[in-house]
Design brief:
The complex is a heterodimer of chains A (384) and B (293). By secondary structure, chain A is of the alpha+beta class. Chain A has helices at residues 43-51, 93-103, 108-121, 137-149, 167-184, 195-201, 219-224, 229-234, 358-363, 368-383, and strands at 3-14, 17-28, 32-36, 58-63, 66-67, 78-81, 155-159, 187-192, 204-209, 212-217, 239-247, 250-253, 256-259, 270-275, 280-283, 290-299, 304-310, 313-319, 328-333, 339-342. Mean pLDDT of chain A is 89; it is low at 357-367. Chain B is mostly helical and 293 residues long. The chains are: A alpha+beta (384), B mainly alpha (293).
Chain lengths: 384, 293
């Protein structure tokens, strides 16, 4: 596969704050690459460097073998779909899409046919004369995509393009974007903080945190073989435990020795162990490798999500078998369900699922003291 | 449903109460005087209806003598055209200076923006007459400006009493009214739109021509209106800086008023107002048409 863009040793700071710290990344022809990470991880800055809105403090941006550090945005064969679309409010749909062609003084007839072609691609025929401010979010999104694609760029940059859409529309646009990428063969570089979106759309996922690339890989690799605790925690749910490698393919954690498939570690090397909630089998207490008590059960349709207390560490397990709160159960873990990671700066940062509940996940964790205060106040009011 | 309606109605009641002082003010000091102007314009000294005043504006003639000799001219039409010419020149100069300035200020850091805007507004806090007098001392033949030219070994230039002096005065006095509305539109412009234009193939000039200019047009139109209208009807600047040689339409109104020709003064004011209203309507129309494209 051909490399289109290479980022080499890129470092970038704003006001003394390091935003990107020695980034190295190759982007290949015709791939759907996603930059994934929490806000402030540097993913948008990476995108803006490729677009040409920022230039690196250190390092090189190579486009098809040529250094483009000092090439202004309008001379780069790269276009951007902005987060809030950035459509020109003084132009109608047709003129927004035709904008880049008018700049290049393309003949009228050709503009007409190419704009129509683009509007067909994004299913907006008949909207030519409409004002962009009268369009819904999804329609504005399509105009932005058509406008960015009409000059046939080698690379399309998408900065959280779906963040402003509601869930249903977002799902539709995800598959549509994927379709457009396949149809046009243009390389997409997609920025998102939504791990599900990243996994479902991408050929390659680049997980970023604190200005550094944590892992580059296919969605399956990233999910099954996370590089460190950050990646394991950010992508999907995971139980992350402290463990010790006893020998190749032998690891000890939670007071039990397990067979696993990982090797190449030193003897007695401390490691992080990841076990995905769906990879744990629930068995009777006697048959279990680990024993614990169920502390909560949530029905989610396809499965139950249960929290199990094992020696004080709360595990999350997804199962289709019904168990009850306070039930004593055993856990059985296959060797290939255990993934071993080297210790990193992120080790021990994520803890267990003791504070987990669906609601708290959404509103942010309330501190226990605050919670108690609220409850007490409620009681007092009730008493009066 | 009832709640929502109630809230809306209460909101509008409060709004109406808040508006009341201004409504009274506007009725007493804007609407009533306008009616009086119209009433005086179409009546004679005995308050009988007449079109004579209006007719006089368009037909009155006088003899003008200059290098080319003596000829007969339509007095008030000539004065009006002269006012219009000076006002248009001043407005164009304000726009040419104000637009780039507004753009540069809007791209500066927030702190710099505040300082620059303050610097532009500070002269407005000084009395209009004092500012004009200041320009007299600067521009007169033995004034500061010519003094500086002398220091540079250049010959003094006769400025005071020329049309140039009047234009300088107008530009100085009305410049803030051009720059502020343009600046306020530009400061609100979404930076992402400018980035999008660069991303889609525009160099700096292209961004200016295809995005910044069209989006700043509302500011440009209100700037033009706010400079053109006061400068077309000014009389004080022309008297002081033009040495009274350039009789403008504002001077004509004042002159008739002072001479106790209230009805004809009202007629000139009325005609001027109608012409300005028509100009503004045409401009607004073309602005709207541009916005709709």
């Amino acid at each position: 596969m051909k490399k289109i863009i290479e980022l080499k040793n890129i470092t970038k700071s704003f006001d003394g704050q390091v935003v990107l710290d020695n980034i190295n990344l190759d982007i290949y022809d015709n791939e759907f690459l996603t930059l994934l990470g929490p806000s402030g991880c540097g993913k948008t800055t990476t995108l803006r460097l490729i677009a040409g809105f920022e230039s690196p403090d250190v390092g090189d941006i190579i486009f098809l073998g040529e250094n483009i550090n000092n090439v202004p945005p309008y001379k780069r064969n790269v276009n951007t779909v902005f987060q809030r679309y950035a459509l020109f409010p003084h132009l109608n749909v047709f003129e927004n899409v035709a904008f880049p062609l008018r700049e290049k003084r393309v003949p009228k007839a050709e503009i007409e046919s190419r704009v129509n072609e683009m509007l067909t691609l994004v299913a907006l025929n008949g909207f030519e004369k409409r004002s962009v401010t009268s369009l819904s979010g999804g329609q504005q999104q399509r105009v932005a995509i058509a406008r960015a694609l009409i000059s046939s760029p080698r690379v399309l940059l998408l900065d959280e393009p779906l963040a402003a859409l509601d869930l249903k529309l977002r799902k539709d646009m995800q598959s549509e974007l994927k379709k457009i990428q396949k149809a046009t063969g243009i390389t997409f570089v997609f920025v998102t903080h939504d791990q599900e979106e990243a996994l479902s759309m991408s050929d390659t996922v680049v997980v970023m945190s604190e200005g550094r690339i944590q892992q580059i890989g296919t969605p399956v690799d990233i999910y099954n073989e996370p590089e460190n605790a950050f990646v394991a925690d950010f992508i999907g749910e995971s139980n992350i435990l402290d463990g010790i490698m006893l020998a190749d393919r032998k690891v000890s954690f939670s007071g039990h020795v397990f067979d696993c498939v990982d090797f190449g570690f030193e003897k007695r090397q401390p490691v992080d162990v990841v076990i995905r909630p769906e990879d744990v089998d629930i068995v009777s207490e006697e048959k279990g490798m680990l024993k614990g008590v169920v502390t909560s059960v949530t029905f989610l349709g396809v499965h139950y999500e249960i929290i199990v207390d094992i020696n004080g560490f709360k595990w999350m397990i997804q199962t289709t078998d019904f168990v009850d709160v306070d039930e004593h159960i055993g856990l059985y873990i296959e060797p290939d369900a255990i993934h071993i990671m080297r210790k990193s700066q992120y080790s021990g940062m994520y803890g267990d699922y003791s504070s987990f509940s669906m609601e708290m996940d959404e509103i942010g964790v309330l501190e226990e003291e605050v919670m108690e205060e609220v409850l007490e106040e409620a009681e007092v009011e009730h008493g009066e | 449903m009832g709640n929502k309606n109630m809230a809306a109605r209460r909101g509008s009641l409060i709004q109406r109460l808040c508006l009341a002082p201004y409504s009274v003010w506007a009725a007493l000091f804007i609407v009533v005087p306008l009616i009086f102007v119209a009433y005086y314009a179409f009546t004679d000294n005995a308050f009988n209806f007449t079109l004579d005043n209006v007719r006089r504006f368009f037909t009155a003639t006088s003899n003008v003598t200059d290098e080319a000799g003596t000829r007969e001219v339509h007095t008030y039409l000539l004065i009006f055209m002269r006012s219009l010419k000076l006002a248009v020149i001043s407005t164009v100069i304000c726009l040419i200076m104000g637009y780039p300035a507004a753009y540069i200020i809007s791209t500066a850091s927030a702190r710099t923006q505040k300082i620059m805007i303050a610097l532009i507004m500070i002269p407005m806090w000084m009395n209009f007459l004092i500012r004009t007098y200041a320009w007299m001392t600067i521009l007169q033949d033995t004034g500061i400006f010519n003094g500086m030219l002398g220091l540079l070994g250049l010959k003094p230039i006769h400025i005071i009493g020329t049309e140039g002096a009047v234009v300088i005065g107008m530009v100085y006095d009305y410049f803030p009214y051009m720059i502020l509305p343009i600046y306020s539109v530009m400061a609100k412009m979404d930076v992402k739109l400018l980035e999008a234009a660069r991303d889609l193939g525009c160099n700096s000039f292209g961004v200016l021509r295809r995005v910044i200019w069209p989006l700043s047009l509302p500011g440009v139109f209100s700037g033009i209106t706010m400079v053109l209208i006061p400068s077309i009807s000014t009389f004080y600047i022309s008297q002081k800086l033009g040495n009274g040689k350039f009789y403008l339409i504002g001077d004509a109104i004042e002159g008739q008023y002072v001479a106790n020709n209230l009805h004809f003064a009202a007629a000139i004011a009325f005609i001027l107002m109608v012409i300005l209203l028509v100009c503004m309507a045409v401009m607004q129309r073309s602005a709207n048409r541009r916005a709709a494209v």
